[in-house]
Amino acid sequence: MRGSRRRLLAGLLASLALTAAQAAEIPVQSRQIVEFQGTLPGGRVGGLVWRGGIELDSPDDAFGGFSGLGFVSPEQHLVMVSDRGRFASGQLVYDDADQPLALSGVEIEPIRNSKGEPLPNRFSSDAEALDVIHRDGVAVGVRVGYENLTRIADFSLTGHRPGGPAREVPVPGWLADRRTNKSLESVCIAPPASPVAGSTLLLTEGVYDDAGDHAGWLIGNRDAGPVSYRGSSGLNPTDCAFLPNGDLLVLERGTAMFSFMMALIRVPADEVRPHNLMRGEELLRVIGGDIDNMEGIAVHESPGGETRVALVSDDNFSSWQRTILLEFALPD
User: How far apart are CA 213 and CA 68, in angstroms?
Assistant: First the structure.
C-alpha cells in the first residue's frame, strides 16, 4: 500500500511539473495600433467607435493561429484558442486613455482530451471558437468548438487559465457528422438578459439549410432546436458574441482581390430563438490593410467601465499575416 501511495504521489508531482512547464510564460511583443480607417481613437468607423488596438508578435512558434477569444476576469484577463490545439492566456493592459497597450503574462499550453492528454493530431486539434462560462456572474470555465472532428468541450478555469480534461457537450448528429473544416465556426452563450438566457448558439460556416442560409443550433434546456443565419454576400460567419442586453454580434470574414474582408452584424435579441431565420444590421465593413484574417470576437468591459467589442485575427502561422487585436465601442 505504501509503495502504491508513493507511486501515486510521484505521478501527481510529475503531472504538476509537466503542466507547469507546458504553461510557462512566453515573450510577446506588442505594438500599439492608433489609426484605423483613417480614424483616431474616439472617432466613428461605420456604426462603431474606434478605441485602439495592438499588433502581437512572439519568437515562440506556438504563438498564433487564434480563432476564438474570451475575457475571464474584470481585470481584462483573456483566453484565446488556436487552430493547432492550444490555449493562450494573458492580461490585456491599457494606457491612461483606456486604449489597449499590450498583452502581458502570456502562457500557452495544450488543449487536452477527456483523458487529460494533449490532443493527438491536427484533425482533432482544430479549435475554432471559444466562449466563457459564467456562474452567478463569475467566470468558471470556457466552452470550445472544433471543426474537422466537429464537437464542443468545456474546460475548467484555474485562476485565469483554462485546462484539465475536456468535458464533451452533446451536439446534434447532423453537426457531429460533418468532418470537414467547413463546419462549426461560432459558439456563444446567451447572457441573462437574452430571451434564450443560458443557451449556447452554434453557427456553421459551410453547412446550409434548404433555403441556402447558414445552419445553426441552439443548445439549451428550454430553447433547443435549429436556427439559421442569413449572412452578407461573399462573407461567412466566423464567430459570435452576445452584448449584455441580449443582442447578438456576428463576425463575418472573407477575401477579395488578395485582401481580407470583414463585417460585423448586430442581430436583435428577439431574433435569436429556435426555428427562426436570424438577420441583422451591418455595423462595420472593412477591406484592406487595416485588418487581417479576423476570426475571434468577444464583448467585455475596459478598465474605464465601457463595453468593448474585441476582435482578434488568425495569422495561420504565416509570415505574411499578423496577429492583431482591435477594440471598438458602441456609440451612446
Answer: 23
